[in-house]
Design goal:
Elements lengths: L3 H7 L5 H13 L5 H18 L2 H11 L6 H28 L9 E4 H7 L5 H7 L9 E4 L16
Antiparallel strand pairs: 1-2
């Protein structure tokens, strides 16, 4: 098997997708040592973070947290969690628009901190307060709000 230094050198070559495949093979290989698996996960976290594969970043960091206590990993996990939340909100809004509802004509930018405190994502309030290294202002969402006089159909969609 490869040493940690050889592993880092090998992952410098090739595309990010090839690197992810190589690292995943090392992680899943039953002959890999714990140190090799840990090194492969750390490298995979960085690559997935660059590729904006937020859920993969969160999953790998959750596995690494069992053996490593790193502030850098905590910050990466916090950023990935916020990005994944924003992605889910955007997908939800796109689905709402796609399935026959029309958004309010005036869209407004909502500060994520405000959204987390007042919205459904209250679990991020403490995360944002703890994460002093995260600039909350770089995370904005376009939120479309329905007209105040609109009512809901029985199926839950807006008229």
């Amino acid at each position: 098997m490869l040493s940690s230094d050889q592993l880092q050198l090998k992952t410098m070559l090739g595309s990010n997708e090839e690197k992810i495949k190589l690292l995943t093979n090392i992680i899943n290989d039953h002959t890999s040592t714990k140190d090799q698996i840990k090194s492969a996960r750390e490298l995979r976290v960085g690559i997935n973070f660059e590729l904006k594969q937020w859920q993969d970043v969160i999953n790998d960091i959750n596995m690494l947290e069992k053996t490593i206590d790193s502030t850098e990993l905590q910050v990466m996990k916090s950023k990935a969690t916020i990005q994944e939340c924003c992605r889910k909100e955007r997908v939800s809004m796109m689905n709402l628009i796609h399935y026959g509802t029309s958004p309010h004509d005036e869209n407004e930018i909502v500060d994520l901190h405000e959204l987390c405190i007042e919205g459904d994502n209250a679990e991020f309030k403490s995360l944002l307060e703890k994460s002093k290294e995260i600039d909350v202002n770089q995370y904005k969402l376009f939120v479309y709000r329905p007209l105040p006089n609109s009512s809901k159909e029985p199926n839950g969609l807006l008229k």
